[in-house]
Amino acid sequence: MNALLQKAREGNPLGIDMIDIHGHIGRYAFAIPTLNVKSIVDSMNKLGIQKTICSHMHCMGQNAENGNEEVYKAIQAYPGRIEGYISIYPFSREHVEIVVKKWLKAGFVGIKLHNANGLPYTHPHLEPAYKIANQRYLPILFHTWGDEKEFEEIEEISSSYQNLSILMAHSGACKKEKYAEFALKHQNVYLDVTFSSAPAGLLEYFTERIGAQRIVWGSDVYFLNQAQQLGKVVGCNLSQQEKSLILYNNARQLLDRIQR
Ligand SMILES: [Zn+2]
């Protein structure tokens, strides 16, 4: 058994740094055992996770601004432990620009976009968000689920705004080959392996195709348990160095690139 997995199974600290780049705050139609931010931080403390970068569930609709307010409260309650992605509903170009500038000033570290609102990622009203994010070298976490349209839209954004760190949420939940090819084609694309199940060999496959430097770990807390999501990295057949890249170094680098 590998050393990390053994430590995890014994319930001991892993002795490595970890950043969760895909967390959520807010109610949703999922069973959530404890609906408060403290439950996320308790889980982080138990597992030794330094930071969780969170967006609000309102990223899926028109209440995005209320969601950002709640994320801001969480950041203030747990400085340095909870970080925030800005959620955006593209009412107008002006609105988008105001929202992005306001929350970046308040300390948010990136943007989360979800297409459950029925709008394409290439919606013209989002342009100010991409421009500002590109100037600041921000990460943008895109919800994806293997849809062709998602790849086409994100390809356009990736090519136009090359300073962005583009995080493809739920990479490999389906069409793993397509995700790997997409990352190979676009050097600013990172594969976020947040996914409820843990298909055997998925992390090894991505590492072999694109290298461990562009794979990032997220949990979908608090819908999914961070321990369960961590297990798929800890237990996979990669070296400890590769696991550290996935669990920490790559995310650290994404955050360090940001120009404030
Ligand atoms: Zn999510």
List the helices and strands and how they pair.
Blueprint: H1 3-9, E1 19-25, H2 37-47, E2 51-56, H3 64-77, E3 82-87, H4 93-105, E4 110-113, H5 127-135, E5 139-142, H6 148-160, E6 165-168, H7 176-185, E7 189-192, H8 202-210, E8 215-216, H9 226-234, H10 240-257
Helix pairs in contact: 4-5, 7-8
What does this structure look like?
The chain has one domain (16-257): TIM Barrel. With 260 residues, the chain is an alpha/beta fold. Strands 1-2-3-4-5-6-7-8 form an eight-stranded parallel beta sheet, sandwiched between helices. β5 (139-142), α6 (148-160) and β6 (165-168) form a beta-alpha-beta unit. The protein has ten helices and eight strands.
* Distinct ligand kinds: zinc ion
Cα-atom radius of gyration: 17 Å
The count of domains is: 1
Strand order of the largest sheet: 1-2-3-4-5-6-7-8
Quick structural summary:
This protein is α/β, with parallel strands linked by helices. The chain has helices at residues 3-9, 37-47, 64-77, 93-105, 127-135, 148-160, 176-185, 202-210, 226-234, 240-257; strands at residues 19-25, 51-56, 82-87, 110-113, 139-142, 165-168, 189-192, 215-216. Helices cover 43% and strands 14% of the residues.
